[in-house]
Amino acid sequence: MSDAILVAQGVTRTYSLGRQRLDVLRGIDLTVRRGEALVIVGASGAGKSTLLHLLGGLDAPTAGAVTFEGRSLFEISTVERTRLRNERVGFVFQSYHLLPELTALENVCVPGWVAGRPDAERGVELLRTVGLGERLEHRPAELSGGEQQRVALARALMNRPSLLLADEPTGNLDSKTGEGMLDLLWRLRAESGTTLVMVTHDEHLARRGDRVLTIADGRILG
């Protein structure tokens, strides 16, 4: 597909636990179109997070291929994959993963530092966009859960990624804060034209997607 930004073909992921074999993903075929908001739903343990990590190059499949923007993620070097992931993919995790010793602004700027393109002005702009212009110098422990997640979203957008991956981004938030977070996520995605893949167990949240797929027992059901 000419408009495909991300393609998974025959992706499996197996873990060995002593003599036992755990098949988490069992032959995933998936195409994500550029600019769409795809939501993948499934119960806990269905393989959602594992799939998201493979799509973003955080983990390697046991078999199969993942192609992102025309490049096979697991046929390039680890250094190239790390650089591609930092510059072209943004991640928003359920647990925020902010560095506790850094301020909100410093956390947002980390991807730019890693890419060798520090840009504090963009960091400030992003924090203002997510409503935290007055919290630039606060550290994570001084922020609420919703504020920390907004910092994480700003950080994910720092390098203007073409793909945003969100893993249960409202899982640690109360329902009102979570709805506000999703409103913000969808608005920023629409404004930037960024492709979004979000996994969640909440089918109510899934209704926001342009397309919804279900994963169960390591397989996409449709």
Can you describe this structure?
This protein is 33% helix and 29% strand. It has 7 helices and 10 strands. A 6-stranded mixed sheet has the order 6-7-8-3-9-10. The protein has a 4-stranded antiparallel sheet with strand order 2-1-4-5, covered by helices on one side. Strand 9 (211-216) and strand 10 form a beta hairpin. It is globular, with a radius of gyration of 17 Å. It starts with a strand and ends with a strand. The model has no long low-confidence stretch (mean pLDDT 93).
SSE string, helix = H, strand = E?
EEEHEEHEHHHEHEHEE
Uncertain segments of ≥5 residues (pLDDT<50)?
A: none
Shape: globular
Strand proportion, as a percent range, falls in 25-35%
Q: By helix and strand content, what is the structural category?
A: alpha/beta
Give the % helix: 25-40%
Quantity of strands, as a count? 10
Q: Termini, distance in Å? A: 18 Å
Mean pLDDT score, rounded? Answer: 93
- What about the largest sheet? 6 strands, mixed
Q: What's the tally of helices?
A: 7
Rg, please? 17 Å
Question: In what order do the strands lie side by side in the largest sheet?
Answer: 6-7-8-3-9-10
What oligomerization state is this entry in?
single chain
